[in-house]
Write a structure and sequence with these properties.
The chain has about 400 residues and is α+β, with helices and mostly antiparallel strands. It has 2 domains: about 270 residues, no CATH class; about 100 residues, 2-Layer Sandwich (Conserved hypothetical protein from pyrococcus furiosus pfu- 392566-001, domain 2). It has 12 helices and 20 strands. The strands form 4 sheets. Strands 1, 2, 4, 5, 6, 8, 9, 10, 11 and 12 form a 10-stranded mixed sheet that branches. Strands 13, 14, 15, 16, 17 and 18 form a 6-stranded antiparallel sheet that branches. Strands 3-19 form a two-stranded antiparallel sheet. A hairpin with a 3-residue loop joins strand 14 and strand 15. The protein starts with 5 loop residues before the first strand and ends with a strand. The relative contact order is 0.19.
């Protein structure tokens, strides 16, 4: 049974004795400038088994390398039965309740041989530019890990709702694998196994029909671009040590992701804002005005780019360039010659809260529309890095399932 660009796989879940509410934690690249969030997670988890012990929150990357501890805990959870194989050669259909509504997903193993974050020509494509210096810490964690816990969300363009929705309709009345209220206002999560041959055959037919209309571009990485790029780098490094036969079906050739339909009403594209720290706000803003003029563009009053506490602008004479692309190009140049640092933030209010620091400047941006999303990537390659987010930070994927990659 052939699925274009994905495959069924074994998946591991916590044993029934594990408290799922303490197990599931949000993606490690969220709340990076709010360590208090992660301290609260620590307090909630306590000594209980948790996915928190299998990740390294990026808010604490500068406080030491815990890779060996993470990998040791992965092995211990496998050895002592904390994690058990709950799905054999299958998929999981997922329902997540968030403030935006209920959204559906499908856990699947994505073929890294048909994905490359440096090109825009393969079946699976990045949606944003890759920040190279964000990869090494992630590679270090993954390269020797026995397990992966995914937070990558991959979009399909399925306006007729032929792929995920029929599976959910078929499975939703059955007993779920998990049914959990997520911590820290993360909403509610349920998941059902898809292991029977009839369901898998229907999924294969639907995906292949969508593939036939996709013009070679079936999957767009909606969230977790850098995590999937990390999986790709690790696979290429490992593949170089394998024979062709060993590489063909090696588990590290695949990365566990959640497929979601772009047209799901509960999927909202939120802008990712910027906060620049240790900066003279007037100097940065004046420099931006000069930069825009040198590009042959103009600034007018508007809300495309809002410098919190100062002014808001729209771009004139931009010749199709996205405001965020112009801003990011400027910020990249600015940071090369100044001691300032930058963080990428979800949520208007979080930006405003961070701007209470006297030397912090928040920059609010607008989101991008869904219409033309796939076509924009097909034509332009990808959007500027950190252009959009699928929902607010607490709506990001929570770690629940695990998969062996060794």
């Amino acid at each position: 049974m052939q699925f274009p660009g994905i495959r069924s796989t074994d998946m591991y879940l916590p044993a029934p004795t594990v408290d799922m509410a303490k197990w599931a934690v949000v993606a490690c690249d969220q709340f990076t400038s709010q360590p208090q969030y992660w301290h609260e997670v620590e307090d909630l988890v306590g000594e209980a088994p948790s996915a928190l012990r299998l990740i390294q929150p990026e808010a604490f990357l500068e406080q030491g390398d815990h890779t060996e501890q993470v990998n040791a805990t992965m092995r211990r959870y496998l050895d002592d039965g904390t994690l058990c194989c709950a799905v054999r050669d299958g998929f999981i259909v997922v329902e997540r309740e968030t403030p935006a509504g209920k959204r559906l997903g499908l856990m699947a193993a994505l073929d890294l041989e048909r994905y490359d974050f440096t090109t825009g020509t393969l079946l699976t494509r990045a949606t944003e530019g890759t920040v190279a210096d964000r990869l090494p810490p992630r590679v270090k964690i993954r390269q020797n890990a026995p397990l992966e816990l995914p937070h990558v969300l991959v979009l399909i363009d399925d306006p007729d709702r032929t792929v995920i929705e029929p599976l959910f309709a078929k499975k939703q009345d059955g007993a779920p694998l998990y049914d959990v209220e997520l911590m820290q206002d993360g909403g509610h999560l349920r998941g059902w196994a898809v292991e029977d041959e009839a369901s898998k055959a229907g999924l294969a037919a639907a995906l292949n029909a969508l593939y036939d209309k996709a013009d070679g571009f079936l999957y767009a990485v909606g969230d977790g671009n850098h995590s999937l790029a990390t999986a790709k780098l690790c696979w290429e490094n490992l593949k170089a040590t394998l024979s062709p036969n060993e590489a063909e079906n090696h588990p590290a050739r695949y990365a566990l992701v959640e497929l979601e339909n772009l047209h799901d009403e509960a999927i909202l594209f939120e802008p990712i804002h910027r906060v620049v720290f240790h900066v003279d706000a007037d100097d940065l803003i004046d420099g931006f005005k000069t930069y825009v003029e040198k590009q042959g563009m103009t600034l007018i009053d508007g809300d495309e780019i809002v410098f919190v506490g100062h002014a808001g602008y729209a771009l004139g004479n931009a010749n199709g360039m996205l405001p965020i692309a112009v801003l990011q190009n400027y910020l990249d140049e600015y940071l090369q010659t100044h001691e300032a640092t930058i963080d990428y933030i979800h949520g208007d209010q979080t930006v405003r809260d961070l701007c209470e620091a006297p030397d912090a400047l928040g920059i609010l941006l607008q989101g991008i529309p869904k219409d033309g999303f796939f076509e924009g990537i097909r034509v332009g390659g990808h959007f500027p890095r950190k252009t959009f987010s699928m929902g607010e930070a607490n709506e990001k994927r929570y770690y629940v399932e695990a998969r062996k990659i060794r």
